[in-house]
Amino acid sequence: MNGLALGLAFALASIGAAASAETPRSADIFVDPDSTTLQAAARLEGQSRHDALLLSRIASASWFAGQTPDMVEAKVRDIVDRATAAGQVPVLVAYNIPFRDCALYSAGGASNGAAYLAWIKGFAAGIGERNAIVILEPDGLGIIPWHRTLDGTVESCQPAGQDSRAADARYEQLRGAVAILVGLPNTRVYLDGTGSIWLAPGEAVNRLIKADVARTTGFFLNVSNFESDARVVPVRAGSATASPLSRAAPSTRATVPANMRLRISGSCDMGGDRRSV
Question: What is the model's pTM?
């Protein structure tokens, strides 16, 4: 487990190495031969096609958002089936929490907490007892509706018709999702630690603890951003060793999917197809 967690954080070569004849990739992480990046390459020409083909050979995460519990179960099962047959581990992004992205670029999500947890159960059923890594709700702890920070400031995400109970509900939804996913015997679950230019480590730690990070494998950084390792790694270290987190979850690990490294972050804003599989 530790080796793969380290592989997520550090083992993949950066895209800058792509100029060589070697294709940067990880032997452990699933490379989907039917990815949306490869499909996009078929519609492109010249250097754009070359770049898309290169990206399609680098291990990347598969994003799931919306649809019914049965539909997401079938799609997750398909990815996990193919990854298992290849002897690799799929990285799956669950991205369907209510008030997702607070009506910004990636607005959407389940209609309420009950619908969300039903969706997560379908997502989990698609994994079953196979190996998988789950990146749980990018933005989920960075953008919380009607959330009050440690210094008492109410943040800017203030959807109409809601109040501070929406922030409480967000934590309940994440804790519920964590409970479902950590019940899978061979799944590693990571929560949203945001990034180096987003939340201060103390604020991020407070939110991670409320979302039950102690029950997960750890937390991720930089999924919704494009920060360099030089900026992200110190935040990772600061968050992981922050006193409240070290007491609440002494074995918590951080994974840092930096720019295009695992393409969790690299794939999230490409071509408007951020969430499809």
Answer: 0.77
